[in-house]
Amino acid sequence: MGFDIERFPNIIDEELICSICGGVLQDPLQIPSCEHIFCRRCIEEWLSQTQICPVDRTPIEMNQLKLVPRILKNLLNRLEIMCENEGCTTVVKLDVLPSHLADCEYDKNKLIQCKNGCGLIISKANYQNHNCVQALNNELNNVKNELEKYRNDVDFYKNETFTLQEFIRVSRANSLATSYTSEDLENDEILRWSNGLQLARVTYWGGMISTPNINLQNAVKNALIESGCPINITNELMENIHEQHWPEGLSTLETRQLNRRYYESYVCRRIIGEQAVVVLSCDNRHMNQSMISEPGIIVIFSHGVK
């Protein structure tokens, strides 16, 4: 997002305004073919939804964006801007704004170290009401909660490992005599395929794209096929790429907000080459039924998948 134009005491040339957010350009990028310029965050979020220029609808891909000319960066850096902190009347050049904010005495969120005994790092706004004993107790409780979470994770993965080992043992013992049903065969296919996918970590669940366009869907489908996913499973998973086919706990924005605290419990696997993950039901038996679907769901993100 760009800088609020109200923070600039002087008139700003319209060439320095982002046409997406209406603010003064921040960390700008340019579309080479039409030379339109936007804030980095604005244009990246836009292109995650549709691959055209917001101004003249010129086709454009994320990897085609380039840095703006130095002359434009110099024009932006010379602009005068008011400090964003309440009570501060300082006006600085845009290129020195970060260094001013780092030292601004009016920054209520500035972190300082408590000198009353606990040594904890707290925000300046909370310093007057800070209680060392209470804060240390809170820290201790947080550590206990984290430790309990890690213990639960260890128990979960132990159970998953045992389940997989038992599955392998039974499969080997009965491989010659067992006649698989179609459901058994599908589960076996999913296990063989998913074992080749890396576990993924989602660092920003807010970047979830619940209604991906056809281009994003096709890209994910091609990635699934290239990863060796059987075509019947690929088709079933692609049915569950849109919020209309997600489980009850994810099907609307309201339910997703209510269930946000459960996201970290998902076991996700990375779809190679895409900012997307597959959440398979066989990996997530520990989750509530309202949070999973058979054989799984696909979630695409604007960013934040590692």
SSE diagram, text form:
Elements: E1 28-30, E2 37-39, H1 40-47, E3 66-67, H2 70-77, E4 80-82, E5 91-93, H3 97-103, E6 111-113, E7 121-123, H4 132-174, H5 182-194, E8 199-200, E9 208-209, H6 214-226, H7 231-239, H8 253-258, E10 268-270, E11 276-280, E12 296-301
Antiparallel strand pairs: 1-2, 1-3, 4-5, 6-7, 8-10, 9-12, 10-11, 11-12
Helix pairs in contact: 6-7
Portion in beta strands = 5-15%
How many runs of DSSP E, i.e. beta strands?
12
Fraction in helix? 25-40%
What is the tally of helical segments?
Answer: 8
The count of domains is 3
* Oligomer type: single chain
- Tell me the overall shape: flat
Q: Which structural class is indicated by helix and strand composition?
A: alpha+beta
Distance between the terminal alpha carbons, to the nearest Å?
Answer: 24 Å
Poorly predicted runs: none
Describe the structure.
This protein is an alpha+beta fold. The protein has three domains: 5-82, Zinc/RING finger domain, C3HC4 (zinc finger) (Herpes Virus-1, 2-Layer Sandwich), CATH 3.30.40; 141-178; 183-301, no CATH class. 35% of the residues lie in helices and 12% in strands. The strands form four sheets. It has a five-stranded antiparallel sheet with strand order 8-10-11-12-9, with helices on one face. A three-stranded antiparallel sheet has the order 2-1-3. Strands 4-5 form a two-stranded antiparallel sheet.
Characteristics:
five-stranded antiparallel sheet; three-stranded antiparallel sheet; 306 residues; alpha+beta; 8 helices; flat; Herpes Virus-1
